[in-house]
Amino acid sequence: MVKSGVEVSGLRVVRGGQEVLRDLTFSVVPGEVTGLLGPSGCGKTTLMRAIVGVQRITAGAVTVFGEPAGAAALRPRIGYVTQAPSVYDDLTVAENLSFFASVLGVGQDRVDACVRVVDLAAERGKVASRLSGGQRSRVSLAVALLGEPALIVLDEPTVGLDPVLRRDLWETFHALADEGAAVFVSSHVMDEATRCDRLLLMREGRIIADDTPAGLLEKTGADDIETAFLDLVEQAAS
């Protein structure tokens, strides 16, 4: 049996009097790319914040590698990429990575390795403010990978990127999973579903499906994930 990297049980989050997450229970295992798909505003970012330990929860539990989410011992084991690039605009790619490497206590060899992973060797001397949106996203990913995290949480990392770059990033996510990391990535783009090993489909703060892409298509009889999602929404409403 594969040991879970993340265990979420009965998770509820209420914010501003509104229930944002509604009794979520699922796991994320090492060695897989688990996709969290759903429309904007359904609670994906709140869920990811709960997993990395920066979201106050109302009920339930979230554990990561056996520790409560947010525990100090987990900090070097988690890489978190938010929707907004986490880089300093007035520093170069190399300077950004060197700064965060010094905070984490890792060496230049790790900086060089992360630059190669995200394919930014040719841009390492460029100031971040002059990079494209896709390149800035890749710098953020490189920063998240500096500590060789066992769990990588990626909040809509491919939004606004061209198809070639999206493909390249998904190949990187799978390479990281193949090395043993648990990769948890969110998207509202349904055609990215087939790139995941496993899917969580989310709607209005609830998980309405948890299966492989092939399993979801088989269960619903749909030809594509978007149709399967719509079928599941209709079933949940009936």
From TrEMBL:
<protein>
    <submittedName>
        <fullName>ABC transporter ATP-binding protein</fullName>
    </submittedName>
</protein>
<dbReference type="Pfam" id="PF00005">
    <property type="entry name" value="ABC_tran"/>
</dbReference>
<dbReference type="InterPro" id="IPR003439">
    <property type="entry name" value="ABC_transporter-like_ATP-bd"/>
</dbReference>
<keyword id="KW-0547">Nucleotide-binding</keyword>
<dbReference type="GO" id="GO:0016887">
    <property type="term" value="F:ATP hydrolysis activity"/>
</dbReference>
<dbReference type="InterPro" id="IPR017871">
    <property type="entry name" value="ABC_transporter-like_CS"/>
</dbReference>
<keyword id="KW-0067">ATP-binding</keyword>
<dbReference type="InterPro" id="IPR027417">
    <property type="entry name" value="P-loop_NTPase"/>
</dbReference>
<feature type="domain" description="ABC transporter">
    <location>
        <begin position="6"/>
        <end position="229"/>
    </location>
</feature>
<dbReference type="InterPro" id="IPR003593">
    <property type="entry name" value="AAA+_ATPase"/>
</dbReference>
<dbReference type="GO" id="GO:0005524">
    <property type="term" value="F:ATP binding"/>
</dbReference>
